[in-house]
Amino acid sequence: LEPDELLAGLALPHPPEGMRAGYEKLRIRDAIDFPSLGVALGLVAEGGKIVELRAATTAVHTTPDYYGDLGFGGAPLGEETFRAVAEALGGRSRPVRNLPLPPAYRKKMVVALTHRLLRRLAGESGVP
Length: 128
Fold this sequence. Notes:
Elements: E1 20-26, E2 37-46, E3 49-58, E4 65-69, H1 79-92, H2 103-124
Antiparallel strand pairs: 1-2, 2-3, 3-4
Helix pairs in contact: 1-2
């Protein structure tokens, strides 16, 4: 913006029909601590299969990372797919050293939090 301009609003597109979204974060203390990393997922599932899966991470780099659709469309909802998605997102993450937790630990936690979040979102979609 120019010095004399003011942002008055922001229009965001609506999520796809049936999308479930969630966020998991790692922090040292539960109270008011800033996250040491966060994972956000948006999942559309139908007939026990992934239709669309979007992902983003926060506090891994100096800015949030948006990965878009992870390319698991058509994959069955279940532990094998959840592990594959979590490993794929963990493999793409490149934590920088800027927090009290080492980057290698935070990278492993991207995998763990992604897996946990997928299980929760799939359960919300009616898939055990």
